[in-house]
Structures are given as C-alpha cells and as structure tokens.
Amino acid sequence: MKKTAFITGASSGIGKATALLFASKNIRLIICGRRKELLIKLQKQLEPLTDVYVLNFDVSDKNAVANSINSLPEEFSHIDILINNAGNAHGLDSIETGSLEDWDAMLDINVKGLLYVSRAILPKMVERNSGHIINIGSTAGKEVYPKGNVYCASKHAVDAINQGMRIDLNTYGIRVGAVNPGLVETEFSNVRFKGDVERAHSVYQGFQPLKPEDIAEIIYFVISQPAHVNIADLVVMPTAQASSTLVKKTI
Ligand code: 8X3
Is 116 a catalytic residue? Predict the structure, then answer.
C-alpha cells in the first residue's frame, strides 16, 4: 500500500528536496509551509508523480496547526511518516546583545512548532500502533558554537525531544529518529542573516557544502528500512566540515 508522508517546511531546502524524492518513490504527500505560492508551485510539480495535499500554516501557531491537521480530508488523514523539518536560525549574536524577537522565533518554530505538529498527528499513529517520525535536528543540537546560543539551545531541545518521543512511543511500535545535518546550502543563512545575501553566501564558500538533496537521500534511506529497523540518530556533515567551528576552506 502507498505510504503517506507529512512534511513541514516543504516550500524550500531540505523539505522541498525530500518532497521531490518521496514523490519519485510513489509516496503520497502532505506538504506544509507558510509560503502558499511556493507550495502550490511545488504541488503542480509533484502531481504528475503522486497525490499531493497542501496545508498552508505556520507551525508556531498552535490553533492553526490543530485546525489544519484536523481539516485533512479522509484520504490524507492516515499519516505513515512525519518529517518534522520546519526550522530556522534567526540572527548570530552574542548572548548579551541577542534579539528577544529572534529568540522567540527560534524557540517558537524549532521547538514548540515541532511539538504542536507532532501532538496533532500522533493520536492516529498511536491508534494504529504504527508510524515513523523523523526529526530534523542539526549539528547545533550536538555542540554549541560561538554566538549559536539560542539556536543551539533550540536544536539541543530537538535532540532531547527526539529521545523523549522514542521512549514514550516505544510501546506503540512507532519509529522515531533524527537526522542532524551540518552545513547544508539552503535559505538557512539568508534567513539567519536577514537577507544579507553576501554574508549568507560566504558561509558556503571555499568548500563543498551539503545539498538539500544529500539530506533527502538520507531521510529516504532512513524511512525505507525494514519495519524492525529504527535509525535513531544520524549526524551528517560535508567532508570539509569536522565540527561546527572547523571547516577546511580553500579561501
Ligand atoms: C545548521 C548548521 O552549523 O549553521 O543547523 O548551526 S549550523
């Protein structure tokens, strides 16, 4: 039987690459995000390959999350795979000068958003005693780097939630695992540096960063394992990266 996957943050980056790969593997999709036009465009691209439903909401809005997920038509309400991908960095400031708005945004989206979405989807997985959740964390959830403070805290929270979910959902046979990427060239740095394209671009210069498609392939590998195999936690970096602060650059 065809599986159905629910992907947050599907309008760009890792979420979009995962949607494209899943569609090519005949997985039915619910693609979610804040940018409706991009989701509609992606839906048109995916529809020749699979059934696609668009949900346009902000993960940090708990009512919108619950209403959107409750509004899913019957044929999309059986979710086999949840990819908790939505997440961003806002700013790169030392703790004493950090922006409260940036902190709120990161904690609201990366931590609370992930929880709201999971909480809305889990009851049906529990009812069926099956499901697979992939939480997209970060190397920032494994170590802390200068000025990473709150972003790192939000991703450390994802790491803890990933472990907590696996423990609590063990009794229901629901698989839970995380994929923690290092430097992936997406809109990530554009958002972190608030549209300073040059600064964002410089993060990925002088070495070969990961592409969203690299992470999508790994996510697909994780979800295509046999039912008795749960990949609990993966850290993925470009070859040029050894840690958050050590990247071998040619320039
Ligand atoms: C993205 C990786 O190193 O910019 O989560 O925090 S990093």
Answer: no
